[in-house]
Each structure stands twice: as C-alpha cells, then as structure tokens.
Amino acid sequence: MSDSPRVVLVTGASRGIGAACAAAFADQGDVVIGLSRSDGEPHQGVEHRTLDVLNAQDVASTFDEIEGAHGSIDVLVANAGITRDQLSIRMSDEEFSEVIEMNLTATFRVMRRALKRMVRQRSGRIIVISSIGAFMGLPGQANYAASKAGLIGMARAMAREVASRSITINVIAPGLIATDMTSVLGEDRLAAMATQVPAGRLGQPEEIAGTALFLASPSASYITGAIIAVDGGLGMGL
Fold first, then answer.
1. Per-residue pLDDT tens for 155-167?
2. Helix axes 142-162, 93-100, angle to 10 degrees
3. What is d(CA 48, CA 1) in angstroms, rounded to the nearest whole number?
4. Residue-wise DSSP of 12-44
5. Where in the numbering of this chain does the Ketoreductase domain appear (predicted)?
6. C-alpha angle 104/51/150, rounded to 5°?
7. Per-residue pLDDT averaged across 206-226, rounded?
8. Element of type H or E holding 211
9. CA count, 13 A, side-chain hemisphere, 109
10. How far apart are CA 196 and CA 211, in angstroms?
11. Lowest-pLDDT range, 13-17, 75-79, 120-124, 192-196?
C-alpha cells in the first residue's frame, strides 16, 4: 500500500458506522467517496455519491465513474445494511428476502466490482461490516443473523481467492453500537441490554471506524480472512 492518499469507498455512509468510517479515513488524508441511497452527513473530505446497491447497473456505472475520476480503488468498507426484525413464525418471505438481498447479495455485488479493479492493480483492502448477531442468534433477527453470518463465509472464501494478489479481506463484527439503527429500541431497552455487555456500555461508531483504519493500514498487511469482534466482550469466546 502506498503512503500517498488512497481512494476509499464506504457503502452505507450516510450515518452511523458508515459515516464514522468515511470521516476517519478522510481525517487521515485519504480520498473518500461515501456511497448511500440518501445524502450523507457533511464531513470535510468526504465526497458523497448516491448509489442503490440493489441495482446492478447503478453499481457498475458508479464504479466506472469513480475509477475514471480517481484511477484506482484502494479500500472498500462494505457497511450497507438494514434490519426487518420480526419473530420467525411471523416473519414474511418478503421481510426475510429483503434483508438477505440488501445485506448479503448487494454486498457481494459491490465487493465483486471492487475486486475487479484491485486484482488488476494487485493491491487492495476490503473491510466487511458483519455483526455479533451472526454468532449470538438474537431473537427476532433470523433474517439479519443469516445475512451477517453469510457475509463471514463469503468474505473468507473471497479472501482465499485474492490473497496472492496482495488483497486482504477482513470482517468486523460490531456488538451493541449507539446508532440510529439501535436507537429505535428505546432508552430503557438499550440500558437493559447494556448490562449484558461486560464493558457495561454501548460502543460508539468511531470505535468501529478505528478498527477499520487498522485493517486498512500497513500494520495489517498479513491479516486476511479474520473476524474482529468490537463488542465490549458481549460475544466473548464465540
């Protein structure tokens, strides 16, 4: 990896973990493109582009434009995701398939396109944002857990395919993080859940971003196919 500013793409960059990752890379001087279906949080150094990762043609054309403008894709943080929580016996086919399509299939689509460039340039870093829910099986999240567990298997398969090209693919598994996605649970439920975390608190998006910075750094050049839980010990031993 060069010491010069890298071209960093972050999906789901409009808020929460994605916004924090985009800001962290921008703050260290990288060229950062935040990709999301809505406008992102303003941050100096982050260029936001609208992208529907569910649309294969939109993904192809957006990546073509980025490559044309910047010449390379050095880091991808694959963060875009949704929840549609419901008890399994009440979960509709649509609620299940919508989460799988967004969290897993669309992430594959974006990773595949980024890898085409990285393989040609024989370098690159991909950081996939999964979840501790992939291991813990939280009630009401059969669809979400399936999608996040799928990301881990997919990332490891792809990591083996491209390791010889100086490309690393690693997974971050966040625990209970203070974002808009978790805020819908309400303060009382979040406080109760926090008591189950050995660290005794919710994590912050910036703590996930810090791990992403490490995995994209020269210090992590010999790490690939790894899963790093950033969860305050919630999934300890899993």
1. 999 999 999 999 9
2. 30
3. 24
4. STTSHHHHHHHHHHHHTT-EEEEEESSPPPP-T
5. 6-175
6. 5
7. 98
8. helix 205-215
9. 22
10. 22
11. 192-196
For residue 78, which amino acid is it? A
List of E strands, the chain: 7-11, 31-36, 46-50, 75-78, 124-129, 167-174, 227-230
Q: Is 144 a catalytic residue?
A: yes
Which position has the token pair 């020269």?
Answer: 218
Identify the active-site residue in 117, 126, 144, 229: 144
Pair of tokens at residue 210: 């810090």
CATH class of the domain whose range is 7-228: alpha beta
Integer Cα distance of 93 and 160 in angstroms: 33
CA separation (Å) from 210 to 3, 104, 183, 186, 201? Answer: 18, 23, 22, 26, 18
For 107, what's the count of Cα atoms within 13 Å in the CB-facing half-sphere? 31
Tokens of 113: 């396109």
* pTM given for the model: 0.94
Distance of CA 88 to the CA centre of its chain: 25
Q: List beta partners, residue 126.
A: 76, 169
Cα separation, 96 vs 100, in Å, equals 6
Residue 228: closest CA among 143, 169, 183: 169
> Given this model, what pLDDT does residue 180 score?
75
Cα distances from 213 to residues 2, 30, 176, 201, 230, in angstroms, run 15, 11, 20, 22, 13
